[in-house]
Every structure is written in structure tokens, then in C-alpha cells.
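Justification of computing resources. Each target in the renewal requires a structure prediction run like the one illustrated here; the chain below, 148 residues long, is used simply to show the kind of job we budget for.
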Amino acid sequence: MQIRPFATSDEAAIIDLWNKCGLIRPWNDPHKDIARKLEVRPDLFLVGVEGGRVVACVMAGYEGHRGWLNYLAVDPDHQRRGFGRLMVVEAERRLFEVGCPKVSLQVRASNRAAVEFYRKMGYSVDDVVSLGKRLVSDGAESPSTEKT
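Resulting C-alpha cells:
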């Protein structure tokens, strides 16, 4: 798998991938999420390609205090081949290069497989409460237990 920065021609494939992986929620407009990412550190929006097809992606970010990982996805037909690990390692490498001291991420509590994946990669549960506040509504209101 080759890892490269996102190209605008990848948008439909990325949204299809997010749908296959169950990452899209009614209150998150994927087109708007991509457009917003392209305004801030687009070099940290990474795509994994194999055989000319988008099979993985991750959105990384860094605001000077800590890095973040969002939208890690691997096509279900390509899972269990190390592609998720490769995407995270590359995102971490790029974040480290810009001086990022810590990487954080959020996983829905119900997604036990994702929690275990990140634990195996050295991530641990931080003793924090995740809070969020929508400043712009992209679609349907989210249930209060799943706002992201």
C-alpha cells in the first residue's frame, strides 16, 4: 500500500470508504468535513492506495498543543493486513516531524474493536471526559450520547 496526501479526486472514494466502515453519522456532513480539513493542514490528510484504489485513510491534525487522529478507515476487504497500523504510524511520524508531543483521539465507547486496536498500538485511555459543542450544524441533530 502506498500512502500519500489526499487529492481532491479522492473525495468520492473516501466518502464511500467512510460509509463502508460505518464512520458517517447524520449530523456529520462528510463533504464539509473534507472541505474543512483541506483548509487546515491538508498535508496531514493521508490516503492509502493499493492497486489504484483508495483502501485506507486517516485525518491527522496538530494545533500546537497536541495532535489528533480522526476518520481512520480501512476498507473491510483489506482489514487485518496491517494497513490501519501503517496509516497510524505514518500520521504519527508526520506529527512528530512538526514537533507534536502527544497524539489524542476519540473512539465511540461502543467500538470495542477500535479501542483494542489503539491499545495494541500503545495508546491508553486518558482520564478525561470528552465534551463537545457544535458551532455549526451540518445536518440532523445527534443523540446526546454520541455527539462528535
